[in-house]
Amino acid sequence: MPRTALHAQRTPRRVPGAKRAQAEAEPGVSHVLRDQQMMTLLGVSRTCLHYLMRKQGLPFIKLGEGRGAALRFSEQSLQRWLVQHEQHARSCFPTTQVLTCGHK
Fold first, then answer.
1. 30-61 burial, b if ≥16 CB within 10 A, otherwise e?
2. How far apart are CA 2 and CA 71, in angstroms?
3. Conformational region of residue 57, where left means phi above 0, alpha means psi within -120 to 50, and beta covers everything else
4. What is the pTM assigned to this prediction?
5. Which domain CATH number covers 50?
6. Is residue 96 part of a domain?
7. In degrees rounded to 5, what are phi and psi of residue 87?
8. Closest CA to 38 of 90, 69, 82
């Protein structure tokens, strides 16, 4: 059997969106967001995102070493963090915005 035919048999065809659909069907699966997606989702700058990580305990996953390491964020962890900070903001500061960076 030629090598290409054998390779074609072993490698399943990828269906666009199949991975996302499979993850949506599995309730325990958490999606992972990139830092750019987080900035868009939260409506904050990169500086503010890093402030939230350092000072407000925004959970993150660091892939690699040093300053250039890629950052990822679990949707489940983000949801829990938002709920905690929303409740804190309601009880302490009912009229202030939840996501503030604290820098001028």
1. eeebebeebbeebebeeebbbbbbeebebebe
2. 42
3. left
4. 0.59
5. 1.10.1660
6. yes
7. -65, -40
8. 82
Handedness of CA 62, 67, 69, 75 (dihedral sign): positive
pLDDT in tens, 55-97: 999 999 999 999 889 999 999 999 999 998 887 655 554 444 5
Q: Answer yes or no: is 54 within a domain.
A: yes
Written in H, E and C, the secondary structure of 28-89 is: CCCCEEEHHHHHHHHCCCHHHHHHHHHHCCCCCEEECCCCCCEEEEEHHHHHHHHHHHHHHH
The domain total for the chain is 1
Determine contact, residues 101/51, Cβ cutoff 8 Å: yes
The whole domain housing 88 covers 30-104
Instruction: Specify if 14 maps to a domain.
Output: no
Domain annotation covers residue 9: no
> What's the pLDDT score for residue 13?
54
Tens of pLDDT, residues 21-54: 444 545 555 699 999 999 999 999 999 999 999 9
